[in-house]
Amino acid sequence: MNARSHSDLLHPLSNAQLNALEEETIFILREVAASFERPTLLFSGGKDSLVMLKCAEKAFGIGRIPYPLLMIDTGHNFSEVTAFRDKRAHELGAELIVRSVEDSMARGTVRLSRADEPRNAHQSVTLLEAIEEFKFDALMGGARRDEEKARAKERIFSHRDSFGQWQPKAQRPELWSLFNTKLHPGEHFRVFPISNWTELDVWQYIERENIELPNIYYTHQREVVERKGLLVPITELTPPLAGERIEVRSVRFRTLGDITCTCPVESKAATAADIVLETLTADVSERGATRMDDKTSEASMEKRKKEGYF
After folding, report:
1. Are the C-beta atoms of residues 268 and 249 closer than 8 Å to each other?
2. What domains are defined for the chain?
3. pTM value?
4. What is the DSSP pairing of strand 69-73 with strand 39-42?
5. What is the pLDDT of residue 308?
6. Nearest by Cα to 266 from 258, 278, 277
7. How far apart are CA 71 and CA 84, in angstroms?
8. Residue ranges of the alpha helices (H) in the chain?
9. Nearest to 59 by CA among 18, 106, 25
10. 250 φ, ψ to 5°?
């Protein structure tokens, strides 16, 4: 916005909302540190995990985050994101643990039905293996309730049984921000510190706090094809199908995941302030607009979460 940034013009109520969300997230991050013996913070290098990590930096300080960062790598991640992940963890002096779906494939615990099958859903197996390896009792992730309906049902502190399964009807109440963190052996919690944030909140906070992101979140030129209402990026993993016409368009990614299921949107937004304005007029959720694997029913996503999907 011309000479002044969007954050300079934020309405006082918007700043108050961001302050309240930040305060809640910092409270949850500290609550996890105080309540669990072996917690970890899931860190993909995506915008939501970077917002969560910014709040952890404020909660504890650089070099003092009291839990390791954990990344479950499908082997099909955008190189810009994994490079940024490593850079940010180094800057904060944080321990970074990476576990790979490809390692699970080598062990035979993940078996693909075909070589080009998306690996996103298979992360659950590798995640459960990492939980067993490190005996994690709480895993914090950047999921938000506004992303899709199954996530909206989940509590901030989401109890998982010894098989990593989620039971929606057995969720514990969270009245007055009082969290029941009691665990039996082998159980753990999934914790969502930014559960109450929206996509707009995230981008306003990124703009206000000047949070650096992987550059593919902003407009860039990329080869794409139109497929089933989405812009599919042309890569070695996602080649064009017969009859599809490759175009070069100005695009950005609203969300980032496995290359085989993540699509960009057409955009000329070059700054976080530009994206705030775009988000204000968006009429489709970020996952609905960009994720090929989310073209499924709410029941299907809920089933995946019951089986251990984050």
Report:
1. no
2. 6-200+297-306 (3.40.50.620), 213-294 (no CATH)
3. 0.87
4. parallel
5. 55
6. 278
7. 13
8. 12-35, 47-60, 79-92, 101-107, 123-134, 149-152, 199-209, 272-281, 286-290, 298-306
9. 25
10. -85, 115
